[in-house]
Input
Amino acid sequence: MIQVHQLIIPLSLSCDLANGNPAETALRTAIISIRIGERLGMSKFHISNLAYISIIRFMGCTSYSSEEASFLGNEILIRRALAHVDPDDSWEVIQNLFFKNRSGLSWKGVKNILVNSGNLYHDMAASHCDTAGLFAADLGLPSEVQKALHEFYERWDGKGEPIGLKGEEISIYARIISLAYFLELVHDRLSISELMSFVKKKMSKQFDPSLAQHIDEELFFNLSDESIAKELEKAMSAKSFASQSEEKIAEVFGKMVDLKSQFTVNHSSQVCELAIKIAESLSLDENEMDSLKLAAYLKDLGMLSIPNQIIESKSSLKISEKESIRLHPYTTMRILSPTNLPTAVSEIAGTHHERLDGSGYHRSLKDSGISKSSRVLAVADQIVAMRSNRSYRKAFSETELKKEIYKDVKDGKLCKNTVDAGLESLGYYIKKSKPKNSFGLTEREIEVLQKISQGLTNPEIAKEFKLSPRTIQHHSIHIYNKMGVSSRAGATLLAIQNGII
Ligand SMILES: [Fe+2]
Output
């Protein structure tokens, strides 16, 4: 067991990548927030909360990536272009999307966003907030941390999302961190007087005006130093939250990655489960098993830096797009490098796409260069992926899967013993215990929830069940009410946690 902050501080780099932010944006935002909190005379307990909330706030950002990408295109570029922009100011949106050419969008694309975005922003905010709150609960963080995570798109003038809270209805945590994030994004491009006049226009609209008096140069002192992680650790350890196992924290980050695409929901848990069964039958020792579990959850952190239009592409990828996919295990290793996890975790995670004949990526390792644990993870990952739909193909049937995977064995890519063990485990793997239905959902609602979590729209679900879209809409409302969430991502996460999907 470790204290949660010991792992989420280094892993916050994955949140930066997912948002298109420079490395350590989350850490610097937390430091600026802490400094404002100290000036307000907040207690060590509240300062610690502030730091946790700052770091976790973007963990929900993968939950609406598919929808954002299908409407916006490259969702990571768009997030980068709009991160510091007032969404209520159309001119500022146009300037940053088009004239400053930060988004890669054509004028037609920008116009499409301005005219047709409809409820996209509301739904995105609801999804990000629900998910971050549920992750905080998973990590065992206090209820006031979870509550504040629902308020990051709210704004002082009441024009925010998803609820439209106004003024002091918004927690002081969310008010401080919203301002701190904005300051972090813009402070190094402006002198302090330019910054003050820029921020002044936004106080009373986006931000709490009483916080303006705390903005000065000292707020940004030493923000680029390597020491900020230590400064943050000190602030966060002042109040020790319940410890968590490394496995639980890794599992939460695995879910964050899985939510990025409707095709990978629950992928990391399934890979972990299958990898452990293979490892048991191959008699890996306890230490190897522990590292394998962590690697199974964390192996695809590097995918967070890849836009969904590549991950969910239905057509063949360009060379540069293929290259970004081939580099994701490397990015995973870089994210894991500052953690205190055993080196084996990073090694196994970083080699899960290597193949014994040297045809894998990203290092083209061969034979004995690939550890037994890496071979197990590679096989588990491939089997789970083949049993799932992808944007460009349907899930393989059992017969197709066996044919394809044994072809890889014959071609010298995968180890036969490991594949045999994986397929033998599969019989057990597909037997599922009856789902725990703690929300009182009806059988029909469970069926609808399963379809919702697969990313189907109400009309698509209606077509499958031969019901009217209106009936499905009623089912959806009941499901969300019973589960206490307001987004697909929130419902999906709770469904996974309760074994419903
Ligand atoms: Fe991968």
About this structure: The first helix runs from residue 4 to 19. Residues 428-433 have pLDDT under 50 and may be disordered. The chain is about 60% helix and 0% strand. The pocket of fe (ii) ion is lined by residues 299-300, 328, 352-353 (CB under 6 Å).
